[in-house]
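Troubleshooting entry. The earlier prediction with pyridoxal-5'-phosphate gave an output that would not parse, so I re-checked the input for stray whitespace and re-submitted. Clean input:
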Amino acid sequence: MSDRSTPGDGTRCVHAGLPEPTPGEPFLPGPVFAAPYHLDPAAGPEATPNGYGRPDNPTRRRLEAAIGELEGGEALAFASGQAALTAVLLPLLRPGDTVLLPTDGYFPVRAFATETLASLGVQVRFVPTAGPYPAFDGVRLILVETPANPGLDVCDVTDLAERAHAAGALLAVDNTTATPLGQRPLDLGADLVVASGTKALTGHSDLLLGYVASRAAELLEPIRAWRTTTGAIPGAFDAWLAHRSLATLDLRLTRQSANAAAVAAALRARTDVTGVRWPGLPDDPAYPVASRQMRRFPGVVSFDLGSADRVARFLAASRLVFAATSFGGLHTTADRRAQWGDDVPAGFLRFSCGIEDTADLLADLTAALDAAGEP
Ligand SMILES: Cc1ncc(COP(=O)(O)O)c(C=O)c1O
């Protein structure tokens, strides 16, 4: 037996959120499917943690305990990453407030801000993830995404948290690409973590999930109330699947990150691929900050194949790379982001390494690129 006082990532993932061992009970109890629960006829809802399924579900609470352990705070689970992001932006911002968002982050957040937040009287300003950041005076909330999707730039969370707090602003970090094993924004000084659990956190491409985590009860309470009011909850089965998947996060990320290192190096060695970005490449612009603040590098690489036609030929020739618009899953996927409206070149690909054997993935990638010919 090891006498380690701080368990490693694999141990933390396997045990996160599990109930105390009880003879005759499963390790991870199955999903509780309930809309109403039995109430005490006299004491009513005060006598039980479970009154009605929208605010209360034990399967969801277990998942939240697990995510909270990994992020180092208290977590609230949402129906999707977008539900979590809007649950931070809408209850915390008031007319007249200013919010700072990334120019190069997940585009529906920008669309939501310019279409909905601006119409509610919130001033919306945009900053590139890599900066430079303006003074934060008069800003209520800064939301950063690091590494940013899809360009993979990063920002210094500790520095931004200090500057935000000096100006009386809040810092929220979208931790989707990194996952809580890749970085712990609350430890770095962020007030809130928000993320899509649809991606690497759960990683099986079979559910949507989001979460918000914080150490500040006064921030989480309005967000919890917002979730109860809007009903943006994950169902019990998805919460249970997510919890089951979380147990292998360490293993999955280890292989994804190793595959990304090999893929990035192989792409760099080719003269027919440009713009290769991966925060773990020592000469990547993101490397100095990423290597300081991240605990491990993500499985996502981005690069440019020069044209939409060449991307199509590459994807048609590959046996292992699925064309799909998500990332962080078990299967290697690639997404031509210009087809969704991202402000990137026509041949730009977000390439998400799965857990295939590295040698197989490299062989397939090389053969498919060779078959795709010139741009
Ligand atoms: C960085 C980031 N944040 C949030 C989201 C939204 O997550 P969901 O699709 O689970 O709503 C995504 C989705 O791709 C994302 O990439």
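This one parsed fine. The first helix runs from residue 9 to 15.
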